[in-house]
Amino acid sequence: MPVDSWNPDIAKRDLKYYIFDWDDNILHMPTYIHLERRLGNGEWVPHLVSTALFSVIRKDTVNYRPPQGDWEKAFVEFRDPASRTEPKFLADARQAIDRLLAGDDKAPPSFQTFRKTLREGRIFAIVTARGHRPETLRRGVELFIDRILTDSEKAEMIWNLRGYLVCYDGAAKNASMTDAEVLDNYLSMNRYHAVTNPDFIAAVKAASVPDPENSETRKQFAIMDFLDWLFKMVESTGSRRPVSVGFSDDDPGNVAAVADFIRHSLAERFPSVKFVVYDTSDPDVEKGHKLVVSGQLPLFA
Predict the structure, then answer these.
(1) What's residue 1's pLDDT?
(2) Model pTM greater than 0.85?
(3) HEC sequence for 130-177
(4) Which of 55, 95, 153, 172 could form an SS bridge with 251, CB 3.0 to 4.6 Å?
């Protein structure tokens, strides 16, 4: 695409940003939690559980437990290998995309919203209970762009991203960057938080956050990190237009925790922002159930 081809309407665009959970929200990943299940006779046997089922039974400690009482053993598929070999996350993402493209799977509730987010070049965060490194999640997003977006959608994305460069960084910077550099710059501006990653947990503890071992608390920390990062960028542009932020998750427990976090913390700290939370636990409801609205603008249109 010629560097002089860019979206001239970017300066008038509304300021919408997004926070996405990954599993069963963007893609149905074939990743399993390794548990033990209690039989009627009291015997415990190995039992593989999908992420969707785990969100339902995770508090049932009577009938389900991690192997040898070790949750790290239960979530071994949700971690990166110690070596720099390819993480299972990427292999699972490929398989999930292959099934989707072959028509063997239905797109999760936030699939199309994420696709549109990328196409429009909007800033986003991935916040997941997985334990991967940020670069692993970013590579998953790159895979999504490469395999899901059509050539015309990729061209539209670059057209929009170059519009942002001209609008906020100047035509000279836009002219000096290749399409690959434009995409790399965009992906570097987003946030990729796997809240059970050891480095992320260490950051939460270093911030003296209460109950840092709680996954929902760590997701709240990830959301606040994204918002702080986001508003530094928005303020640097000098824009005074209203801002809206959407959050989607398929785990009702996480949804409830984030909704409460918005009511008691975020709405007070960011009173001019519209927050919308979507519960995507029901795959038959497109875009999920809207649970919380704060502010003035519609979101996920």
Answers:
(1) 54
(2) yes
(3) CECCHHHHHHHHHHHHHHHCCHHHHHHHHHHHHHHHHHHHCHHHHHHC
(4) 55
Residues 47/52/58/64 CA torsion (nearest 10 deg): -20
- Return the bridge partners of 191, or none: 125
CA atoms within 13 A on the CB side of 43: 3
* Residues pairing with 18 in the sheet: 124, 246
Residue 222: in which H helix or E strand, if any? helix 215-237
Please name which of 168, 149, 169, 148 lies closest in space to residue 158, comparing C-alpha atoms.
Answer: 149
Assess contact for 187 and 122: CB atoms under 8 A: no
Residue with tokens 């929902």: 216
Q: For 47-79, how does the pLDDT look when each residue is reduced to its tens digit (9 = 90+)?
A: 999 988 898 898 899 999 999 999 999 999 999
Rounded Cα gap, residues 1 and 210, in angstroms: 49
How does pLDDT run across 203-223, given as a tens digit for each residue? 999 999 888 888 888 888 999
- When computed from its CA atoms, the radius of gyration of the chain, rounded to whole angstroms, is 20
Buried b (16+ CB within 10 A) or exposed e, 273-295: bbbbbbbbbebeeeebeebbebb
Rounded CA gap, 43 and 25, in Å?
A: 34
Residues 228, 238: Cα–Cα separation, whole Å: 16
